[in-house]
Amino acid sequence: MAKGYRQAPGKGGSKKRTDGKRVAGQQDFGVPGSGGSDPYSKLQDLDYVPESVGGWKKQPRGPHVHDRHVTGMTIGKPVPLVDSNWKITGQAHYGDDIRLPGELIGKILRSPHHYAKILSIDTSAAEAMDGVFAVATGQDSVNKFGVLPVTKDEHAMAQEKVRHVGDLVACVCAIDEATAIEAMNAISVDYEVLPSIHDMEDGLKDSENPIHDRGKYHIGESNVQKRVFQQFGDLEGMKDAPFHHEADWETAGLHHGFTEPHAVVAHWDPSGRLTVWTPQQVPHYLHRGLSAVLDIPMHQINVHRTFVGGGFGGKSDPFPHEMCAAILARKSGRPVRINFDREEVYWINRGRHPSRIQMGVFADDEGRISGIETDALIDGGAFASFGHVTTYYNGVLHTAPYEIGAFNYTGARVWTNKPASGAMRGHGAVNSRCAVEVGIDAVSEQMKVDPMTFRLANLLPPHSRTITGFRVTSTGMRECLAKVREQSGWDEKFRNLPLGKGIGVGCGFFISGSGLPIHWDPENFPHATVHLQCDMDGGVTVHTGAADIGQGSDTAVAQAVSEVLALPLDMIRIRSKESDTAPVDLGSYSSRVTFMNCNAAIKAACELRDKVLKAAWEITGYNPDVLVIGDRRIYYKHDPAIGVSWLEAVHKAQADVGSLIASGAYRTPPMGGIHKGAAAGLAPAYSFSAYVAEVDVDVETGFVKITKAWAAHDCGKALNPLAVKGQIIGSCHMGMGQVLSEEMKYGRNGHLMNPDLLDYKIMSVHEMPDVVPIIVESNDPEGPFGAKEAGEGPLLPILPAVCNAIYDAIGIRIDELPVTPDRLHKRIEKHCRKLGIDDPLELPVPRFEAGPLQQKLVERAKSHAKRDHLRDIQEDRSSYVNGVLFGFDPDKPMSEQKEGWRESVIPTPEDLADPKKRAARAWSHVERRHRGDA
Amino acid sequence: MRMPPFTLHTPENLAQALSLASEMDNFDWVAGGTDLLPNYKWHLNPKPNVISLAKVQELTALSSTVIGAMVRVHDLANSEEIHPLIRETAATIASVMIRRSATVGGNICLDTRCYWFNQTEEWRRSIDWCHKCDCDTGADCRVVPNQNTLCVATYQADLAAAFIALDATIHLASGDGTRSMPFADFFQLDGMTRNVLKLGELVTHVTLPEDSVNWEGGYQKLRLRETWDFPEAGVAAAWKIEDGKIAALRVASTGCESIPGDHSELAEGAIGEWNGKQSIRDLAEGVRKAVKPVSNTYFPPAYRRKMLRVLTRRALSPLEHL
Amino acid sequence: MSIHIRVPMLPGSGKEVWQANVNGEENEHLVESNSILLDVLRDQVGTLGVKRGCDMGTCGCCAVLIDGEPRLSCLCLAKEASGTEITTVEGLADGHHLHPIQQCFAEAGGSQCGFCTPGFLVVSAALLDENPQPSRSEIKCAIEGNLCRCTGYQQIVDAVEMAAAMKRGGTSTPDTTDPKSDPHPLGPDDPSLPPGSSK
């Protein structure tokens, strides 16, 4: 088995080629619940696990591994977040609320140039100032770091070049803020300004001075940071499809807009250990980064996550200012606090990539989606951040929820002299998903088919394998669509509303935890670990590294433990803040926490429970088989009067086995293909969602008001419906902002024009429509109590739903985000001119007349609904393979498949011939090491 | 964000305030602080002295015809005796939290705004400053380059349009005495000079004509969000109906140029042969033509200009059937 | 080439005595003439529940009650709040009894990351003092100056409605220090006690 960080492919599969490569379409998967070498499903031994209060319940969608752990204590009940009382009393301490005695204030000197060489830095005047304790520059740490091990391209402060306005040049710490600012201004820097690039297409060209130099791995002399090519399925068939919609999308960059600006406090304690307090989504990456930058072993560092005032992906990179604080604290010998001004938050950015996406959606005369063709060029800004992954996500996350005949993706990410883009809620999937869903809407209009029906007739069933090899376990897509259709009154409203009023639908699909732990081999280390500790007081302390960023991960983990142990939530204490006490965890990104940490927590809780049940056996004389664990009591199944209290059992267990501790870990099952990039987008489960939005469009001004949204999200199982609803509504808010108002505006000479909350237009309470959150529970076989993610997926569908509703209202197809009034007004004017209409109030509205395919698709949707239901409840969970609808035979090797069916991740010149495709141009450069030059 | 150092003076009455002012040659007045303090936080032309008018009781008069400069916008928006047009306009200003601090005088004297000016010191350093806040570098205008005379920063106060539409009079005071003028005359076409206030002079109050109670009107505002945002364009219209006919009509715009626009001559001219919708359309077109926004706020100038036409039409829509 | 034309931060402004009643407690501090109330509250009074979000009057995270009225502390000169009564989020609860608005924010999901929560709470508390039965649109108008990035506002409006009903009903919130779950829920006379055990 090849080691590395690629997923172990085809494990458990029987049909393997002798050369070790997987035969396409012939992959089997491990049994549900198996989790690597030490699967938690071992605990599913039905003879041993005692029946709990909730007991074995027949599930509408078939059995689920955690059914037997349900006690009915907390799972599925709306519970306030366990830390909410800190927040509502003002006692939750965020980054800037950490105040240590003797603290110094740190300030960062930033680049005033887009791109420049640093010729010299003179800090002597600053250092000589009264009250200044330390000054640091790039010379103080030359080590690189970066969130992904493959693309480390950041430094604490600029080494020889600054790469965007706001890039870090030097930092100072002083007795107070005024002195620190004065000292910062006293640092003199000489620059040699270099020609900067701002347009992402310029990044594809050769440059005299590429923004980064990756040595022999550099792609030509260009600013291409990453390029991806993937072709799967029957591309010829796709091109011949009678119905197709092609659009060229331009989407603006976004910022997460969290309310808490970044802040950090660093302190080296008397024993020489460094503690860093910071609102981090992923403390562990920072832990690694600090160790590299400061040249000290990781055990010498304690990363203390404070309360996080909103993350959304924007606090998941290790940040240079965190390094600066640690460096300054080391040099000055005093604690150093750095608190960002709002503008600095935009300079560090890591928001959604500005992108240009060419999207083609194809459908054949059977009403099947014969292919999706995407070319995505994304603007990465000055650093790599998560961009490697984003480049994949812009394509590979199209491959569900629909069964498609072909998938053709070219993607590229370029460096430009802007603040770095990175991961933001719905990472990489949002813009391109919007383009796909609008394309689907347009294609169904061409076919004269209701877009709801079109979608329902083309869904992948539960337990399928997507065209690129993702393993989809549960899916509630069909139910999501059915619910929003019914509740929104879709059938009466679609194409029936007057001018200016419209209704639209959109779907989404998102990973529930990235299957790949990017810093280590999943063969060796688990994704998540949870330790439990129970002492004489009877309460249970949970140690986890899951970072609660407000989404409620502490609550979810507490709920999982509380459910298994049948203890009230107030007896569960979460310790998730310090790397000193928390097991290593990948933190809060890729919507992984509920799935992975709760699974680990369940496993740990089961272990603890077994110890306590054994003790109860000793006391009561009844075998755990017949014991029931209830609310703080363990009692005989047939006579509840016979039993022991939780505390007694705990004390007995302690007397018998000593300390009462338990540990659980989660690792993803082996899955996925072996092609280059197969691991990108792999997840142990996927969430699905479907939204319907209604809009009012003012045709005279171009203003769009969303009046109501019905938002159905399949989260597997709502562990805490209150939190899930909050995530759905909150996602809608953020998505509506992206579709209608939010953008990072760059001025004509490349400056970010709106780095503040007044001009970066986040929706206010007045723009927010009534959102009807609809929870759909598909009961994932491997999710904790059936749960999947609910934090990011719910953002995706609102964008296309609004775009499609705008079309329904005024007949204009959107291909540019955000749809600000000025942009839409321009489109309306153009549209009027095209139609020869003077007054936009006389615009014609699209109407719907069902074509011959409609009835056919209605029937196919019906039969697929039956198929899906059967697949849900049957024991056999082998994969349905994408392509069967198109005549693909998963049992045959690739060479015997119908003509045209292919799998390729290495482009040929013909594949890239289309001159219109932007990202494809990234292949015009040859990687330096393959160039043959010295 | 760190405030630049200054000394705050808090005179107890108008006489004290004016005499303090006459002793200083470099100071700013502060009323509610919702304009001045953000600008100071961004180090936009801070002064070593700031005189607060918070305690000056003489400036808080409020009646149907007299509105003191220190009346809070929130109170103005919620005061029953105030003209509905003024109330309506006041209620659209920024957010309720800002309105609770902001004052009428502060809104009238709002500093002009520009994408290249309303930025932090760090940001402005990265564009080598601009001439509205050039730090003595002699920097050029960043909106309309190669001219260093006129500042084109935009005046984005809502109340001015309503006051002009109602033919209000503005009253000023300084150590040298008081003076009054029609509201529109208060402004001077330049984003830096902004208005006729001399050093040491302040706005004391605004008066409305006695018969303003007989006037009706409406205010239309272009902004992306229904709170927080400054007007990207705003149109106030006021009219008096006598015997079922328009006896007087005044229209004013704001948020498009360095000063508010008074289009009353245009409006008066239209009354004579009033022809409902058509007259409104013509008038709206006239307003559009009269105003030339530049590219220095959120929306592009071409759009703002076109919207001026729509806003004017909407503000005048009650007159459609006359 | 470097440019050093910056507004000087030093020497700082002169200091004066500042006095205010914050959450029922008399406070006296020496503050600079140019001080902003938000800074004084956070750095000198120590009410860190007052949050700095944008510092420019947009986000509303810094809202406090000055003499009962919600105000943005980031746009308030400290000196002008001298002599007033200031209530921050820390002053809302009555001892260990939460204010109804606090209780309801937790129960209705009005708080996710919690950073904007203090601002929303004081603004909503003031609304309920003024208007015991606000409509949803009145609530929206009252909180229009506060920015929340997590919740999409809906559950915040729910929470304010809930709190209004709670306040009107005169229900008091439970004492947060009341005993929590007993890990040993069996009394000595409980027949369910297994042989040999006692509390």
Q: Can you describe what's shown?
A:
- The complex is a heterotrimer of chains A (about 950), B (about 325) and C (about 200).
- Chain A contains 19 helices and 31 strands.
- Chain A is α+β, with helices and mostly antiparallel strands.
- Among the domains of chain A are: about 180 residues, Aldehyde oxidase/xanthine dehydrogenase, a/b hammerhead (Aldehyde Oxidoreductase, domain 3), CATH 3.90.1170.50; about 375 residues, Aldehyde Oxidoreductase, domain 4, CATH 3.30.365.10.
- With about 325 residues, chain B is an alpha+beta fold.
- Chain B contains eleven helices and eleven strands.
- In chain B, strands 4-7-5-6 form a four-stranded antiparallel β-sheet. Chain B has a four-stranded antiparallel β-sheet with strand order 8-9-10-11, with helices on both faces.
- Chain C has about 200 residues and is an alpha+beta fold.
- Chain C folds into two domains: about 70 residues, Beta-grasp domain (Ubiquitin-like (UB roll), Roll); about 70 residues, DNA polymerase, domain 1 (Orthogonal Bundle).
- Chain C is built from five helices and five strands.
- Chain C has a five-stranded mixed β-sheet, with helices on both faces.
- In chain C, helix 2 crosses helix 5.
- Chains in contact: A-B, A-C, B-C.
- Chains A and C meet through helix 1, helix 3, strand 6, strand 24 and helix 15 of A and helix 2, helix 3 and helix 5 of C.
Characteristics:
heterotrimer, A: 934 residues, alpha+beta, Aldehyde Oxidoreductase, domain 3, Aldehyde Oxidoreductase, domain 4, seven-stranded mixed beta sheet, 19 helices, 21% strand, globular, disordered N terminus, B: 322 residues, Enolase-like, domain 1, four-stranded antiparallel beta sheet, 11 helices, 11 strands, 19% strand
Largest interface chains and counts? A-C, 91 and 72 residues
Largest sheet of chain B: 4 strands, antiparallel
Terminal CA distance of chain C reads: 80 Å
Spatial extent as radius of gyration of chain C: 22 Å
Q: Taking all residues together, what is the mean pLDDT of chain B?
A: 95
Largest sheet of chain C: 5 strands, mixed
* Topology order of chain C in helix (H) and strand (E) letters: EEHEEEHHHH
Structural class of chain C: alpha+beta
